[in-house]
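User: Can you predict the 3D structure for this chain?
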Amino acid sequence: MASEDVKTSESAVSTIVNLAEEAKLAREGVKAPSYAVLSICKSLFAGGFAGGLSRTAVAPLERLKILLQVQNPHNIKYNGTLQGLKYIWRTEGLRGLFKGNGTNCARIVPNSAVKFFSYEQASEGILHLYRQQTGNDAQLTPLLRLGAGACAGIIAMSATYPMDMVRGRLTVQTEKSPFQYRGIFHALSTVFREEGPRALYKGWLPSVIGVIPYVGLNFAVYESLKDWLIKTKPYGLVDNSELSVGTRLACGAAAGTVGQTVAYPLDVIRRRMQMVGWNNAASVVIGDGRSKASLEYTGMVDAFRKTVRHEGFGALYKGLVPNSVKVVPSIAIAFVSYEMVKDILGVEIRISD
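Assistant: Here is the predicted structure, written as structure tokens:
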């Protein structure tokens, strides 16, 4: 009799435990999807905020870089970083320094959001496959981070490329050039109507080729530098496995410098290809110079060949100085602000795993 009571009690306890577990799983099943969506939204917001903040901080240098990339070699208006910025200030005022920044932010906010989120997802996927091959304790190597960053860059670039294309055209317009485009949406609709949908992706190939080393190296150098500093703790830069904001900014600056130097010639070719098909491109790019040759490239290789033949190899690095001055703080601010915003929002940062 006693044994039956014990069995009955055990059965009752087992039933209660099972019901409690089922209720817990049910609760988790309801909450998990909403939590995952919220986490994704927070991650995307952090990436978008980081991109908008970093680009606005260096908007004058961004505009000067593009003007240097496409200016007529026979009619030099922008001769260096300081002179170029002073010239824009004198001729167009404060608004001229930030011309195109609205379009740039409209592009970079979703681009940055997709880029950071895609990097996290790609690095997780690559790490999972890598651990299956080598063991459960394996960590991401610099080469694997490069691959994850390249994937993120391609996805983000392709998703927002039309915005980048019209941003380039809006940016090179000045007070003396015919204003064909009144804004972002007017530029998108005009290009679509007059040049066709494919025109919105002019220069896409060199952009994608350039984004592979650029974004890939940005993430690889930044994350690898952080890991190295945390493990070796040189010069007392690391305290309790935590990097200071200044140290992380330095890591981001180094990453940006390496990435943009490797990919810069492709950025120049991309800008020039984006001008092809624009009726007023000659007046904007060629200006009042002696050469009135039309801007026509049959492709990326032809654009490289004509640029080097007519202007020399150095033309592939036009605007590199303001771009370097721009990239160092821009990439640094983007990485650090992304991590800080995610920390404030209470989202786990996994890009260093």
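Strands lie at 238-239, 242-243. The first strand starts at residue 238 and ends at 239.
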